[in-house]
Amino acid sequence: AFKIKDRVVVPGRGVKILVQKPDETVFSVNAGRPVDARISTLYYPRWKAEVNGLPEEVRIGNDGATLVAIPAKSSTARIWFQEPWFIVRAGHLSIGIWLFFILGGFALAAANSRKQE
Fold first, then answer.
1. Looking at the chain, which runs of residues are DSSP E strands?
2. Backbone phi, then psi, for 30, in 5-degree steps?
3. What percent of the chain has pLDDT over 70?
């Protein structure tokens, strides 16, 4: 999967990368024959894709890279990593706990300074 250095490869068709982030890639493809776009990201089931605004299946290539089917017409494709719901909730819980400790610490410090006066 690491031998091909191009971020997106669509055989026989022109490609323009519009957005490139670690967890998202958006690219446009010129019209041509229907092919699979090869995204230089190791396949993982949490990768999601849409082509021209419609959901598209993400598949694994022979080399472990991510593949997305591109139709014959000129298209815009987006592939992104979707965190599981429990990871997102854990992040929210973590922020809440940190805020509780920080605000609790300020409240204890304020109460302690009142006692010393």
1. 8-9, 15-21, 24-29, 35-42, 47-51, 54-56, 58-60, 65-70, 75-81
2. -70, 160
3. 97
